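Possible race condition, two jobs.
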Amino acid sequence: MTHPIPEPPSVDVQEGLEVLNRVPRLGGPLGRLAALLDRVLLTLAVIALIGLSLTVLLQVASRLFLPITLAWTEELTRYLFIYMVSLGAGVVLHRHRNVNVELFHARLTPRGRALYLIVISLITLGFVVMVLPGAWQFAQIGAFQTSPTLRIPMIYIFFSSVLLFASLAFYAAICTLEGIMALIRPAPDARSEC
């Protein structure tokens, strides 16, 4: 008895999972600034990931092949991981790649998607605006501390929280504007779906 080979998922399934990507991106100078910032932040996040990977490999190699272990590798790995997340979080928000439960997104009309994006972005923006001053105060605490093994001023490490929340605020504002623009002027191919 032969079993049929399952067909790969269709493009419709993937599009159904990425419903918010159908909301048109912001154009003009602000849209170009967001795209440029996307590239810069993602490049830095990838550099942090590569550095993290190389540091972990060095840590494993030192434990296996060297008579001593390098104590600073664990600390550097942690800091690179923190920065990788801080650099990538805003871009993830802008590209709608964050973890969420998509129970009803596919049923939304283009205007419904735009409204949903506005609500989620405004909630995110409100939270970030409340937290950002505290993140700045937290970063300033690090001015008087250094890391245990690398002796890095901790303000550079604690500043990752400011970077995280500032990029989330910027991208939440961009997503809000994209949602508003989609509400005002839906995409030409989406007008029939409204």
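Job #2 (started ~2 s after job #1):
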Amino acid sequence: MAALTLQNWNLTIGDGKALFCILGLNVIEDLDLALQTATELKQIADDLKLPFVFKASFDKANRSSINSFRGPGMAEGLKILATVKDKLKVPIATDLHEPFQAEPVAEVADLVQIPAFLVRQTDLIVATARATQKNKGLLHVKKAQFLAPSDCKSILHKIEQAAAPNMTILCERGSAFGYNNLIVDMLAIQEMQKFGVPVTIDATHAVQLPGAKAVEGGGVAAGGRREGVSVIAAAAIAAGADGVFLEFHPEPDKAKCDGPSCLPLSGARALLTRLKAIHAAARA
């Protein structure tokens, strides 16, 4: 498997490389929180000598309720992410939902993420691949909850035809069989690596319980099993994952989005230290 490098930052993910860490917030709440979280995570990653990309979403478009908090929107969100990038000198990851967003997002984000529910949208894939290639970034493509690992070959083929090969990281985040739950098959990691691409584990969203939480007004929201995040992350890294995707918050129970799946920022150092050791042992 060929390793991939974020050219503007000299950060590499793949065989024989350090555990690649995509860490941050579920959604942008405000600039101060983004700076606080990114500063602490950067310090931990620097101390552990782990490649680090700061992630936060400007819009959470896939919500169970129309009343759910979605974020500041693209214009304000990208401004906040650009400020974090400039002040802290860190690469940025964020997701997008529509083709017209590809150009402005790729100008700020070094790692552009395709959400799991949208990976079969050809126009989105093509626009995002071309914009990301133009800006020397990489794609982070989440395997949809309804796809088999082998189905990701078609997604990679679209990207290769639209832009270029060797610019995509695939992400495992569980499979849905209904009943408000997700199941993670660790064998999927090596199945996707057979395509010659690095693979990450989104341990945060893998423990979601979609639509399982009742909310005020009779609606629903995603539940989660926060205690399972470290279990999924450790198991996936032991199974060969090249990177890990984790979301933190200083006060997870007060997070405006997906708090039940979010980890406390205070536990980030201990968890990443453990995951680094598992990554090293798995490749010894």
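Residues 214-218 have pLDDT under 50 and may be disordered.
Logs attached separately.
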